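User: Some background: our group keeps a shared notebook of sequences we're curious about, and every so often someone picks one and asks for a predicted structure to add to the entry. Today it's my turn. The entry only has the sequence so far, pasted here. Could you supply the structure so I can complete it?
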Amino acid sequence: MLNRDIYQKDPSTRKLVNEGVASVNDETTNQALSVLRYELDTFVCDGQYEKGLVHILETYLKNIEQAQQPAVWVSGFYGSGKSHMVKMLRALWVDTKFEDGATARGIASLPQSVTDQLKELTNQGKRHGGVHAASGTLGSKSRDKSARMALLGVIFNSVGLPEQYPVARFVMWLKHENIYDSVRGFVEQGGHDWNEELDNFYVAEGLHAALVKAKPNLFTSTSSCVDTLNNLYPYVQDVSSADMIKAIKQALTRDGKFPLTLVVIDEVQQYIGEDSQRSIDVQETVEACSKNIGAKMLFIGTGQTAVNGTSNLKKLEGRFTVRVELSDADVDAVIRQVILAKKPEAKAPVEKVMQTNLGEISRHLAGTTIGHRADDIQFFPQDYPILPVRRRFWENTLRVLDQTPESVTSPR
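Assistant: Of course. Here's the predicted structure to add to the notebook entry:
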């Protein structure tokens, strides 16, 4: 029997659609949705992934009528699946729909414990203005942005608004005045691209001409548009917490109700880095939202270490009180079920080969902390052709080699 014949899916033809890396964002392109669907289909929701999702959802639903919602911190070394887990939660939260009618909750194989919590979330959403989710990284566009401006960019993007603060406010004003469709129509009838006009809206001639048509009393001429737009929507590098809260409420409120909103901010630890002021800014930003928006908004942040693992992160521990820690065991379970899954009839021959060569296997790196262990034997058929001792060797080697500031976890 050849190695390739023992797997449920031939590894020589199998391709990881996401290249083994989960990108946490709100992209809706065909390619992004295709990747998301693959990730949902291969999501192994057991172990700490199941416990983590249940804990997050259960805590959120218990606090939904309280004044504030505790934020969540998901930690785990690089490759532990923390980004994958929060990306799946974001899709499951809103039950993302695909072109063929399939939904996130229908595609993913979920345990009853998670399904029950999601059903309750949907029921609560019907009472509170629906559900909504936003996800991204604070430094995805520019690390020079303040935490408040970066968060607003993530929120705006989740509802199809431009990420730039003044432009988003302008578009929200157009919609409030019920002239969005007419202004956009005028722009496109003039042969201009709507998004390009917004990107340059201080000097966009097509947009200015459309505004004169739609609001002649406010925009008396195209030449006056520059001054009017600069005065009403000036470019700013930062905003106050009060202005941030006002913009978030304006962007997300539906028919007078604020929806049950999940905000996933991936790689918060990487965004903070060694900058203690940035840590304070993140803490103040999340705190302002929690106090002023209330328990309907849930924040989830991720990092490679526990929230109290570094001096900078410790500033966040009072706000991120719900903790989910992922480990090697969770990753190993996923690899065994998704990548190394064997055909039922192949398990006995593999186990026989491993037992026959157990003497040689047990001598690998003997006397070291990562050498052969008695409890490795039960995983031989699942891990083959990877030997547990070699897996531990590479896990520890990669952690030593990865000495980035946000990677300060110790080897097992």
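Suggested note for the entry: The chain has three domains: 30-146+248-328, 162-232, 343-412. Confidence is low (pLDDT under 50) at residues 405-412.
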